[in-house]
# Entry
Amino acid sequence: MVLRELLLLLFFSHLIISSQSLEFTKPHKIKGPIKTLVVLVMENRSFDHVLGWLKSTQPGIDGLTGQESNRVNTSDPNSHQVFVTDDALYVDSDPGHSFQAIREQIFGSDYTGLETGPDPVPDPAPMNGFVQQAENMSEGMTRTVMSGFKPEVLPVYTSLVTEFAVLDRWFASVPASTQPNRFYVHSATSHGASSNVRKDLINGFPQRTIFDSLDENNLKFGIYYQNIPATLFFKSLRKLKHINKFHNYALKFKMHAKMGLLPNYVVIEQRYFDVDILPANDDHPSHDMAYGQRFVKEVYETLRASPQWKECALLITYDEHGGFYDHVPTPITGVPNPDGIVGPDPFYFRFNRLGVRVPTILVSPWIEKGLVIHEPNGPTPHSQFEHSSIPATVKKLFNLKSNFLTKRDAWAGTFDSYFNLRDTPRDDCPEKLPEVEKALRPWGPREGASLSEFQVELIQLASQLNGDHVLNGYPHIGNTMTVGEANQYAEDAVSRFLEAGRTALRLGANGSTVVTMRPSLTSRTGGDYGQYPQSQ
Ligand SMILES: *[C@@H]1O[C@H](CO)[C@@H](O)[C@H](O)[C@H]1NC(C)=O
Ligand SMILES: *[C@@H]1O[C@H](CO)[C@@H](O)[C@H](O)[C@H]1NC(C)=O
Ligand SMILES: *[C@@H]1O[C@H](CO)[C@@H](O)[C@H](O)[C@H]1NC(C)=O
Ligand SMILES: *[C@@H]1O[C@H](CO)[C@@H](O)[C@H](O)[C@H]1NC(C)=O
# Structure
C-alpha cells in the first residue's frame, strides 16, 4: 500500500514537473494557416527569360508581347534593334552579371559617378543596355540575353503558375551577383558585399539571420543540401548547435516530409556542380534547365504527398537575373540601405536600388488558382517584393517576437496575406506535375570544365570548413580544379565538417562554438589534391 502511494505520488510529481517544463519550452503559437515555409532559390535567370511568354495565355502577367527590344548602341537611335525571341533552350556561356555589366544593362551606359557623383539617376530605369552590354562580351550573346522560354519548354513552371501564384514584381535585392543576393534571402543585407568579399567568405558573414530569429523563438529550421550548403557562408550557422539542422537532401527530405517532420523554415539547396552521375539542377547557364524542372517537380510532389501539405507553402525564386533581359524598370526610389554599410571601392554602392526582376512562384493549398501578384501594398509607398520579403514574411507568418533584421526587411513587402484569402485549404491541387522527358541541352555535364566564379567561392567555403584555407593554395584552391574534382572536394569537406561537429557535440562542447578543422586532419582522406601536403 505505502509503496503504491509512493509510486503514484512520484508519478504525479513527475507529470507536474514535465508539464511545467513543457510550458516553459513550448514554441509560441503560430496563428496563421502556414506552419512550414519552404524556400528554393535558383540561379541567374530573369523573369522575362523564364516566365515572360506566359503572358500569351495569362494576360494578367506583366510579361512579353514580342515588341520589347534593345538597340545595339544606346546612344544611337538608328542602330540595329534586337527584339525578344521565344526560342531559349539552353545557354552555353554565362551572360554578363558583374556590378558594372548590370549597371550598363539597366541604365544603357556604365555611368561613372552614378553612385557617388552628380549624375542624376534616370527613373524609371530604361532597361535598354542588355544588348549593348552583351555585344561587348561575345558573338551570339545578344541573341542569348534577349531570348525567353516558350511555356511548354518549362512545363513544371507553367503548371505551377497556372495552378498557384506568380509574383511579377519581385526583384533581386542588389544589382550585383549571386552571393550578395543570396545573403539578402536570409539576412536582409549582404553586410556590404556587392561581389565576392574574400575576407568575409573566409570568416563567415557576421550578420544576424532569420535562422537566429527562429531559434530565439523556439521555432525550427532545416537546410537540405546537395553538394554543399551555401548557407554556411553565414557564420552563425556554423555554430555547433546548428550542426544537426543540415540534412542531406537525397537521404532526408522525402523521409522528413513523409513522416511530417519538416521544420517551420525549410531551405532547399541545389546541386551547384554539373557531374555525370548527378547533373547540376540549379538552372545556372550552362546547366540544363530540364534538371532544374525535374528538381522543382520532385520538391512539389514530395510536399504535396506529405501530411504537412495543408500547413505548407513553397516559394521558388532566383537569386539574380544572370544578365538576361527584363523589361520592368528596376526600382531605384525609396529603397533603404539595410544597415548603413557602404560597398567597397571602386563603386561605394549604397545599397539604395534593387536588382533586376526575377521569376518568383508561390505554391500552397491556401493560394487561389492562377493568382497573379503585382506590387505589395506597403508597408511604405515605395515598398517592393525582393529577397528581404522572405525574412519579413517569416516574421509575420510565425509571429516572431524578434526585431526585423535590418531596415530592408522592415521595408520589404510581405506575402503572408495571400494565405488568408480562403477559409479552408484547396483540395484540387495536382498530385503530379508534368514529366520533363527531354534534355534541353544537346550534351551532358562537362566534368572537366573549369569553375565559375560562384563555384570558386563554394570551394573557398569548403576549404574553410575542412581547414585547408590555412594552406598556401588559399584562396586559389578552386582555380586549378575541374568541376568533377571540385564537386568531390566540396562534398568531402562538408561531410567532414558536419561529422566533426557532431562528435564535438557528443563530447559536450559548447553549442555556441564553431568547429575549426586543421588541414592535417583533412588531408588524411583528402590527399588527392596534389599540391597540398598529404599529412604532417
Ligand atoms: C554609338 O553611337 C554614338 C552616337 O552615334 C557614337 O558616337 C558611338 O561611336 C557609337 N558606339 C559604337 C560602339 O559604335
Ligand atoms: C566595351 O568594352 C570596352 C573595353 O572592354 C569598353 O571600353 C567599352 O566602353 C565597352 N563598350 C560598351 C558599349 O559597353
Ligand atoms: C551567377 O552569376 C554570378 C555572377 O553574378 C556568378 O559569379 C556565378 O558564378 C553564377 N552562379 C553560378 C552558380 O555559377
Ligand atoms: C557557451 O559559450 C557562450 C559564448 O561564448 C557563453 O556565453 C556561454 O556561457 C557558454 N555556455 C556554457 C554552458 O559554457
User: Anything to note?
Assistant: The first strand starts at residue 36 and ends at 42. The chain has a mean pLDDT of 87. The radius of gyration is 24 Å. The pocket of 2-acetamido-2-deoxy-beta-D-glucopyranose (ligand 1) is lined by residues 73, 75-76 (CB under 6 Å).
